[in-house]
Each structure stands twice: as structure tokens, then as C-alpha cells.
Write a structure and sequence with these properties.
Blueprint lengths: L3 E2 L6 E6 L4 H4 L17 H16 L4 E4 H9 L2 H11 L2 H4 L4 H9 L3 H10 L1 E2 L9 H6 L5 E3 L12 E4 L2 E4 L10 H11 L8 E4 L17 E5 L2 E6 L5 H13 L5 E6 L13 E5 L2 E4 L1 H4 L3 E7 L6 E5 L4 H9 L5 E4 L4 H9 L6 E4 L2 E5 L3 H9 L3 E5 L16 E5 L5
Parallel strand pairs: 1-20, 2-3, 7-8, 10-11, 13-16, 18-19
Antiparallel strand pairs: 2-20, 4-5, 6-7, 9-10, 11-14, 12-13, 14-15, 17-18
Helix pairs in contact: 3-7, 4-9
GO molecular function: arginine deiminase activity
Pfam family, one: ADI
EC number: 3.5.3.6
């Protein structure tokens, strides 16, 4: 089967993940907020829990691609290595005083070590040369010359597969903006991906995207050529419109449903308050989902034109209509008011479907998991005490690359 994601609940064939590692060992109480984590994590336990997560998928014959391994393969290619370093080690980022020495040092590394540092970051104290220039003198020994990309663990966001193509995300926060460069290198140079998929949008992350920001947690290919796109804290209407135009021009989708969310960390992405469990069964956090306003985007009569239709219906009614089902079966976050708010915060509504009615979910969300089981869902629990400290569940931890369509 060709690469592509054709539903949210069809059989998952291939998925990309990124295990915790060096980047997370650099998290401290002082820097975790700027790096978008709520707390430091117990890294060794997080590694064990992530291995549990990936093993659960491999046991169901799902191909699991590890980001670090893919990046190591790419860094072994001299052309690809130069391509990355030409874009990552630039004077605008590391100053004029050390850019040449830093690039030379990195270029001579073994592929695995280079891949580790591109994700894990480099502190001034680790440099084998004197950090000259104004920037070098400005930094303390513990400051980063290359920032750690701690959020790459949440592989959902820096790219998203939409039917038979992929989009690279121009991301919202500075802490995440460099992730796309490494994904771009993997999609461009790795033999598993090179030439194997359409690049819908975002292929040149050196471009200035202005107010166009988009993250994969806001993107869901739900089938029938329909794509849901959240617009909240991270993804902007400018980006949604631009991506819709690109999809329509390439016949990559026939309809985009823009879902306007409250701009808050609790609902940073659409998938933090809404997940599919089966074709017609969804998990939602109603306190936020009930306030979503929807607008559908369609191809216009003129190439490049987009037609808009604002909906008075509820979010769930719009989604049901797009799928051609009369109503969706709805499971709300479990427990009383207090428990529901806690479990939404702990990603109770952010679950990954491995197939129809089979999901991976964090073990800590006991009330919500039981409601899913009562509805006939096979819930495979994953330890979530450490992995969730950056506010992401199993849906966030994964980037599906191949997923079957479903018959509606």
C-alpha cells in the first residue's frame, strides 16, 4: 500500500514516533516552561513507558519508524548532512563568531551522534573550541548553542499526512520551529520517503510564513475526502485557508472543515478534546467541544478560489453530516466535574486508534477508559505519568504514515 492516511480509525499500518532521550535530560525547572513542558520528567521511566507504547503497536503488526533512526540514516548521507547543516547552522542562529567552527565540528561527527545532537541540543560547555563572538561571550556554559527539541516526542505536530500527501507544519512557538527542518530532511532524503508522497504544503521551512501557523494535532483526515482542521492556540485561519487552497488545487481533498477552538493551553489542538474511536464513535470534552464553531471550505469556481460555508449546526452535527452518518455516538470525558477536567488535562480524549474500536490510551485516565470499554472499545493502556508532562497523549505521540480507509 502506498504511503497515506485515509481515515482516523482504519487499520494503522505504519507510524512514526520519537523516543525520549538527551533533549529531555536537559529539561530543568528553569527552562521547562519555555520549552513547553509543564515539569521536568523522569527520563529513564519515560523511555520505558515509550517502549511499552511502541511494543503495543508492533504486537499488532504495525510498522513503527523511530525518528532518531531515520535521522541517523539521513545524516549518513553526505549530501543530506550538508543540506541540514546549511540550514541549521546559520549566522542568524549561532552568530558570526562560531558558525564556521560549529559547522565543521558537527559535519565530522558520526551520523548517530550528529542526529542525537540535532535533537538533543548542544550547550556552550560541550563545544571543543572557544565560543567566540558576541553571542559566544553572552552565553553561560549551561546555555544552549543549539536548542534541544524536547517536543519532537509529540510526532503528531511537525508534519501531518493528509490522504496521499503530507504537510510540513510551520509551527507556532519558537521552541518547536526547528522541528520541521529535520522532518523535511527525512521526507526529502530518506529512501523510505523520498519521492513517495506529495508534499502538499510547507516543504520550504526557510520561507517566512508570517501569521500562517499550523500543527498536526489540529489536522484529521476523516475520510470521504474531508479534513478537519482546528484553529485554536497553535493553528491559524490563514494557514488553514492556505493549506485548503493547496489541497483543492492538487485534488488532495474535496472539503476542509475549519473548527474554531478557544485559544487556551487546555485545548491547544483539536485532538486534545476530540478523538475518533470508531467510524461513528467519538470521545469529546464537551465543555470545550460544544463551543466549537465550524466553517466548511470548498474549491471555488475559479482555480485558487475558496468557497466558504458557515454552519449553524454543532461541531458534532457537522462532522456526522460530512461522514454521511445520521448521528455520532459520543463518549464524554469520564468522572464527575472535577475528574473530567483532570482527565481532559491528562489527555483522556487524546487516544490513538490502531483499528476500528481499538485504541491506545494513558492508564491514568481511569474513568474515561472505563467509559470506552463500556461502549465496546478495546482499550490498551500505556503508562502516562511521565510521557504526558508536555501535554500530549497517544494521539500526540504518533504520526501515522500509512492508514487504511474505512467503509462508511
Amino acid at each position: 500500500m502506498a504511503l497515506g492516511v485515509h481515515s482516523e480509525v482504519g487499520k494503522l499500518r505504519t507510524v512514526m514516533v520519537c523516543r525520549p532521550g538527551l533533549a529531555h535530560r536537559r529539561l530543568t525547572p528553569a527552562n521547562c516552561g519555555a520549552l513547553l513542558f509543564d515539569d521536568v520528567i523522569w527520563v529513564d521511566r519515560a523511555i520505558e513507558d515509550h517502549a511499552y507504547f511502541t511494543t503495543a503497536m508492533r504486537e499488532r503488526a504495525i510498522e513503527v519508524l523511530e525518528f532518531g533512526d531515520l535521522l541517523t540514516d539521513v545524516c549518513a548521507d553526505r549530501v543530506a548532512r550538508d543540506w541540514i547543516l546549511d540550514r541549521r547552522i546559520v549566522e542568524e542562529e549561532v552568530g558570526t563568531g562560531m558558525s564556521r567552527e560549529l559547522r565543521t565540528w558537527l559535519a565530522e561527527m558520526r551520523p548517530a551522534r550528529l542526529a542525537e545532537l540535532l535533537v538533543g541540543g548542544v550547550a556552550k560547555a560541550e563545544l571543543p573550541f572557544d565560543a567566540r563572538g558576541l553571542f559566544g561571550g553572552y552565553l553561560e556554559d549551561s546555555d544552549f548553542v543549539i536548542q534541544p527539541l524536547v517536543n519532537l516526542i509529540f510526532q503528531r505536530d511537525p508534519s501531518a499526512w493528509i490522504y496521499d500527501g503530507v504537510v510540513l507544519s510551520p509551527m507556532f512557538w519558537p521552541a518547536r520551529k526547528k522541528e520541521g527542518l529535520l522532518l523535511d530532511a527525512i521526507y526529502h532524503f530518506h529512501p523510505r520517503f523520498s519521492g513517495a508522497a506529495n508534499m502538499w504544503w510547507g516543504g520550504d521551512l526557510q520561507q517566512h510564513y508570517g501569521a500562517e501557523t499550523l500543527e498536526g494535532g489540529d489536522v484529521m483526515s476523516i475520510g470521504q475526502g474531508v479534513v478537519l482542521m482546528g484553529m485554536g492556540e497553535r493553528s491559524s485561519p490563514q494557514a488553514v485557508t492556505q493549506l485548503a487552497r493547496r489541497l483543492f488545487a492538487a485534488n488532495g481533498a474535496r472539503r476542509v472543515i475549519a473548527c474554531q477552538l478557544a485559544k487556551m493551553r487546555t485545548s491547544m489542538h483539536l485532538d486534545t478534546i476530540f478523538s475518533f474511536l470508531d467510524i461513528d464513535l467519538v470521545s469529546i470534552y464537551p465543555e470545550i467541544a460544544d463551543r466549537i464553531r465550524c466553517t466548511s471550505l470548498y474549491p471555488g469556481d475559479v482555480p485558487g478560489e475558496v468557497r466558504y460555508e458557515r454552519h449553524e449546526q454543532t461541531f458534532l452535527q457537522v462532522v456526522a453530516g460530512a461522514l454521511g452518518v445520521h448521528t455520532l455516538r459520543v463518549l464524554t470525558t469520564g468522572g464527575d466535574t472535577y475528574a473530567a477536567e483532570r482527565e481532559q488535562w491528562d489527555d483522556g480524549n487524546n487516544v490513538l486508534a490502531l483499528d476500528r474500536g481499538v485504541v491506545l490510551a494513558y492508564d491514568r485516565n481511569t474513568y474515561t477508559n472505563q467509559k470506552m470499554r463500556d461502549a465496546g472499545v478495546n482499550v490498551i493502556e500505556v503508562p502516562g505519568g511521565e510521557l504526558g508532562r508536555g501535554r500530549g497523549g497517544t494521539h500526540c505521540l504518533s504520526c501515522p504514515v500509512e492508514r487504511d480507509p474505512v467503509e462508511l
